[in-house]
Amino acid sequence: MSQHLEVVRTVAELRDRVANARSSGLRIGLVPTMGALHHGHLSLVDAISDKADLIVVSIFVNPTQFGEGEDFEAYPRDENSDLAKLSATAASLVYAPSVEEMYPAGDSTTIRVSGISERFEGMHRPGHFDGVATVVSKLLLHSAPDVAVFGEKDYQQLAVIRQFVKDLAIPSSIIGAPIVREADGLAASSRNVYLSEPAREIAGNLNVILTALVQEAKSGMELRACEEQAVKALLAAGFDDVDYVSIVDAQSLDTLSSLDRPARVLAVARLEKVRLLDNMAIEAP
Ligand code: PAF
């Protein structure tokens, strides 16, 4: 499926390509990314390929979702390598705008989703979800897709996006795609490249420990005890710190005290300077 991919960098060019496709009756799909593409991103293109005819992949490292002291400057960027990877997928068009195109001089609008974006990642990364909600709103308005896909690895991000898309009645369906994992279970992430070799060996334990937590929760162990045991196991496995391990309602992300509805465990453990995110569904026993 190797092909030459057109890259557009302005809202006007993107809207022109989308309008042409739409007038030919094509359905538009959007895969938002920050580049540094790995097989997790490519699986997002696959996940949308039977739902859209013109698949737009956006590549934009969004400054407003990085906090002070985070890795905005260091975030891996390699457009040529990203384009080579995408040219072997069903992607039809790449939207790679500049910061000035996304945030023109005088830009003064922020989308803030209260409640769901204030917990977990929202507490550890203040302002992060305002940046995500604002940039994803812009990407949806620029490309007006029928469908857009986001990875379940950033489970809270997906919940925040679903919330504002519903609240603002944005006419795009939002779909979540399953987490793609490395051979040892570590969730694929562009930031995994920051891990040293010894840290990379420890990192796979996050998946192992969450898998054990899911089994224990399903077998009736008290949910707070499951979380505490997982935190201890992570520290014993060599993680430097654990930001949270929480069993929550899969939709509202409210903390659960029993598995009486679809549940999810959300976790972030730190290794070196990397915050490793993971989550898993817990089906009712
Ligand atoms: O998940 C990401 O890569 C980013 O948060 C997103 C959705 C592309 C917004 O910048």
What's the gist of this structure?
With 285 residues, the protein is of the alpha/beta class.
Strand and helix map with partners:
Blueprint: E1 6-8, H1 11-23, E2 28-33, H2 39-48, E3 54-59, H3 79-86, E4 93-95, H4 99-102, H5 121-124, H6 128-143, E5 147-151, H7 155-167, E6 173-177, H8 197-203, H9 205-218, H10 223-237, E7 241-249, E8 263-271, E9 274-282
Parallel strand pairs: 1-4, 2-3, 2-5, 3-4, 5-6
Antiparallel strand pairs: 7-8, 8-9
Helix pairs in contact: 6-7, 9-10
Bound molecules: pantoate (PAF).
Give the strand content. 15-25%
Number of alpha- plus pi-helical segments:
10
Overall 3D geometry?
globular
Low-confidence stretches: none
- Major sheet strand order: 1-4-3-2-5-6
Bound molecules: pantoate
**Cα distance spanning the termini:** 43 Å
| Mean residue pLDDT | 97
Q: Work out the number of β strands.
A: 9
The SS-based structural class is alpha/beta
- Sheet bearing the most strands, described? 6 strands, parallel
Helicity level: 25-40%
What is the chain-wise order of helices and strands?
A: EHEHEHEHHHEHEHHHEEE
Cα radius of gyration in angstroms? 19 Å
Descriptive notes:
The chain is α/β, with parallel strands linked by helices and 285 residues long. It is 36% helix and 19% strand. It is built from ten helices and nine strands. The strands form two sheets. A six-stranded parallel sheet has the order 1-4-3-2-5-6. Helix 6 (128-143) crosses helix 7 and helix 9 (205-218) runs antiparallel to helix 10. The mean pLDDT is 97. The structure holds pantoate. Residues 32-34, 62, 65, 132, 135-136, 154, 157 line the site of pantoate.
